Amino acid sequence: MAIMHLSVPITRRDSAESGNEAAFDGRYLVFDMRKQCGARLRIGSWEQGLELFHEDPVTGEWLLDDIDPGFTFGVDPKYRDDPVQRFLATIPADLFAVLGQFHWRQVVLLRAVRYDRRSLDLVQSNPTLAWLAADYAAEQGMTPAQCAALLNSRRRAICAAAGGPETDGAVRIIGRIMYHEYNHEKLWMLRQLVRSHGMLESLRNCRYIPGDFLRQILTAEGFTQSAIMRNEPHAVAQLFTSCDTAYDLLQLWKDALRVAAAIDIPDRLRRLQACRTSEELTRRHDEWTRLMNEAQVDERAETFMKRYGTATFPRPPIEGTEDIVPITTAHMLAAEGSAMEHCVASYCDNVMAGVCYIYRVLKPERATLEIVLSRDRLTIGQFKLRRNHDPSKETADHVRAWLADATTKKKTEAVKTTGEDERCAGDDEIPAMEAHA
Q1: Which of 99, 110, 109, 149 lies closest to 132 in space, CA to CA?
Q2: CA angle at residue 71 from 175 to 74, to 5 degrees?
Q3: Which of 28, 39, 161, 411 has a CA 20 to 30 Å removed from the CA of 393?
Q4: 39 alpha carbon, distance to own chain's centre
Q5: Apex CA 293: angle with CA 289 and CA 298, to 5°?
Q6: Are strands 177-178 and 209-210 parallel, antiparallel or unpaired?
């Protein structure tokens, strides 16, 4: 019987994360997973080799099963007497302190290290490469002994098994990729990176690579070759301590390139890559934005007219109000950038391409709002006051309420229109939308 990958976080018997009853008799931890995969599962204690079994639903017999079920165990001292915590107490604490960080392929690594403790050397020195090895072992259906042998093999060979180049350079790059959380989604992105040899090579000059933001870093043109990413590891890590700081940095990079392209700055990528700090990047961005906004509004609108044959934008995705006004022409967008002293004027092409739409917010504070358009929803993108300052909570709440009300109204109108005249279906289809901030 093939047990599906569950990726279930488990800290106690009936935790909110798992919702699965468990029992531990000192030898085996048993889970009732019939809702998830149609069977009860059990895993042996450390002394029992962490062997995995599933129960035959007809005979009730426990059958050995080497397929990784995706369990993620977590220590929680508040529930010391819980079955899951008593099971975890059988695992040496020093080992789990290292292996507990892996939220995916955790059991695979635990079993390999139990078989041969030398496997822990790779986990401690190059955890990301060890993670790739565990994933490869699980995909290939390897036994704990075979997985341990892989973890103890030459590192270049492990890299090649994971689909990467069989080189010391590739091993070093992978060793610089660090995660706060080794979960399933991040492993998927890591696989794509390693198998794309050119993309992996683009990271060769980075001394520290925040794995949690790999996708965003790789899609920011030229960022991996920037002086910022060649800084000391602790300096780079500090820039990516949270989603907010990482997003702001990478958005600033993309905006600076967009502005530079709009006013035809020569050698713009190289000049951005020379910035060693986020402060330098901000100054370069602001300098180019000032140059763009100093140009005559009429001149920029005329340039847009020549490119597209019109200075009028497509119809806004949702109507505005007295306080939130859609910017419907290139002239209005250029004027907004000049008035607010930021780079929104460089978004003309994105608006015409249907990537986003820009609104002028008048109350409670004067701000500029980007609504990002996707196939099935609208979301709040960048939302800034003059000179890129952040809006107050009152202003943010006002905009969220407007977007939620407007999208609800659109959904209602779409249902009515579909019911009244199905001949129009597809001609002016309004996708399902939801408000996100």
Answers
A1: 109
A2: 75
A3: 411
A4: 32
A5: 145
A6: parallel
CA 291, CA 389: separation in Å to the nearest integer?
19
Q: How many CA atoms lie within 13 A of 54 on its CB side?
A: 18
Q: Residue 125: which residues within 8 A CB-CB, separation 6 or more?
A: 175
Identity at 234, one-letter amino acid code: H
* Closest-CA residue to 46 (of 137, 131, 107): 107
d(CA 411, CA 20): 37
Say what the pTM is.
Answer: 0.70
First-to-final CA distance of the chain: 43
**For the chain, how big is the Rg over CA atoms in Å?**
27
At 136, the pLDDT band (50, 70, 90 cuts) reads: very high
What does DSSP say about strands 39-44 and 324-326: parallel, antiparallel, or unpaired? unpaired
330 near 311, Cβ under 8 Å?
yes
User: Cα separation of 232 and 208, whole Å?
Assistant: 8
Burial class of residue 103, CB neighbours in 10 A (0-12, 13-18, 19+): buried
Q: Are 100 and 74 in contact (CB under 8 A)?
A: yes
Residues making up the chain, counted from first to last: 437
Q: Where are the beta strands (DSSP E) in 342-435?
A: 356-361, 367-373, 378-384
The set of residues, in sequence order, having a beta carbon less than 8 Å from that of 181 and lying 6+ positions away, is 101, 103, 212
Tokens 């060769």 sit at which residue?
Answer: 204
Cβ proximity of 408 and 378 under 8 Å: no
pLDDT in tens, 392-414: 999 999 999 999 998 888 777 66
Q: Structural domain boundaries of the chain?
A: 1-91, 298-424
**Contacts of 210 by beta carbon, 8 Å cutoff, 6+ apart:** 178, 217, 236, 237, 240, 246
Residue located via tokens 């290290």: 113
CB distance 160 to 243 below 8 Å? no
CA 194 to chain centre: 17
Mean pLDDT (whole number) for 189-208:
91
Nearest to 5 by CA among 105, 88, 96: 105
